[in-house]
Amino acid sequence: MSAVETIQLHDKVLDAIRTCYDPEIPVNIYELGLIYEVKVEPTGSVYVKMTLTSPGCPSIYSLPGEVEDKIRRIPETQDVRVEVTWEPPWEPSRMSEAARLQLGFF
Questions:
Q1: Backbone phi, psi, residue 37, to 5°
Q2: Domain hosting residue 59, numbered range
Q3: pLDDT (tens digit per residue) in 6-65
Q4: What is the per-residue DSSP string for the chain?
């Protein structure tokens, strides 16, 4: 895969992630700041490091799998790994400006 194709795949991965929502918050997880890292290799391998709003979040059992599943649906991907981390802990300041406005955080 060329450098341009790798960048295009990275964009597709971000688009897929933006279709995932925390069921309790009406904002996609990318805008919420739950995605800490996305790496796309020229081989088509994708690595995502993410967190959730809290360790007790009930989405721990579904959201990482949903992220992985949606990325795997992209034909150019060869391998997908999603890692959940609690460091650093998520905090509202990680949200995008658009997410803060939508949720009424000023």
A1: -160, 140
A2: 3-88
A3: 999 999 999 999 999 988 888 999 999 999 999 999 999 999 999 998 888 888 889 999
A4: --HHHHHHHHHHHHHHHTT-B-TTSSSBHHHHT-EEEEEE-TTSEEEEEE--S-TT-GGGGTHHHHHHHHHHTSTT-SEEEEEE--SSPP-GGGS-HHHHHHHT--
For residues 83 and 98, which has the higher predicted lDDT (pLDDT)?
Answer: 83
98 inside domain: no
Structure tokens at 106: 């000023």
Tokens for 16, please give them: 């897929």
Whether 93 is covered by a domain: the verdict is no
Is 24 among the domain residues? yes
CATH classification of the domain holding 19: 3.30.300.130
Quick check: is 46 in a domain? yes
Q: What is the value of pTM for the model shown?
A: 0.91
Number of domains observed in the structure of the chain: 1
